[in-house]
Amino acid sequence: MKKRIYKRIPYSALFIALYLGLSFVLVLADDRFIDNGDGTVTDREFGLMWAKSDNQFDILWKQAQIWSKSEFSNTISRKYDNWRLPTLNELQTLYVQGIDYDGYQTDCGHRVKMVPQIRLSCIVIWSSETALGSPLAFNFNVGNAFAIDLHENKGCRALLVRNLK
User: Fold this and answer.
1) Which of 136, 142, 49, 137 is nearest to 103 (CA)?
2) Structural domain contains residue 3
3) Residue 27 burial by CB count (10 A; 0-12/13-18/19+): exposed, middle or buried?
4) Of the residues 46, 103, 122, 162, which has the maximum number of CB atoms within 10 A of its CB?
5) What's the total number of domains in the chain?
6) For residues 43 and 33, is the Cβ–Cβ distance under 8 A?
7) Section 46-62 average pLDDT
8) Would the CA dihedral through 148, 150, 153, 158 be positive or negative?
9) Which residues constitute the domain of residue 74?
10) Partners of 10 in the beta sheet?
11) Is 2 part of a structural domain of the chain?
12) In the predicted model, what is the mean pLDDT of the chain?
């Protein structure tokens, strides 16, 4: 039977390795999003293009759907025409869960843990999905999805996305 010999690794070496590992992860996260300079941000990991900001005002879910198809295209480059409300899964990919990331403060005064390349004006973003007849939204302050009454719009925004392919 062979006897294993373990060497103690100095704590400083562990901290350096941990720091370098975290730095590498942060660099990769920055490479994930590309600001296209035209009001859009490309998410290279998921093959999506996002509007760089939400619609900037309270909006009902049905209004958000209409806005995504008609009015929004007037505010962004006309070379893209397939904008839509995102799915909950797509919205979740923008939520930053790390305890070291404090997020940023929105115009409505709440903090969001959203990727910094996309700017929200408030905390709740409509999704394209429904459950039991109610639209679903994602809260970027606490990181969860929930149903909202069709006639509620306080703090609700539209952030549009399109598939690259």
Assistant:
1) 142
2) no
3) exposed
4) 122
5) 1
6) yes
7) 96
8) positive
9) 11-163
10) none
11) no
12) 84
Q: Quote the pLDDT of residue 73.
A: 60
Residues whose CB falls within 8 Å of the CB of residue 99, separated by 6 or more in sequence, listed in order: none
Mean pLDDT score, 113-125: 97
Q: Within 33-163, where are the H helices?
A: 61-69, 88-92
The Cβ of residue 140 has, within 10 Å, a number of other Cβ atoms equal to 28
Give the Cβ contact number of residue 160 at 10 Å.
26
Q: How far apart are CA 56 and CA 121, in angstroms?
A: 6
- Does residue 1 lie within any of the structural domains? no
Cα–Cα distance, 121 to 150 (Å, whole number): 21
Q: How many CB atoms lie within 10 A of CB 70?
A: 9
Buried b (16+ CB within 10 A) or exposed e, 86-112: bebebbbebbbeeeeeebeebeeebeb
| pLDDT at site 91 | 98
Positive or negative, the CA dihedral 115, 121, 127, 130 is positive
* Tokens (6 digits) for 31: 């490479």
The beta-strand segments (E) located in the chain are 33-35, 40-43, 48-51, 104-105, 111-112, 124-131, 134-139, 144-147, 156-157, 161-163
Query: Measuring CA to CA, how many Å separate 117 from each of 41, 53, 76?
Result: 7, 9, 17
| Total-model pTM | 0.79
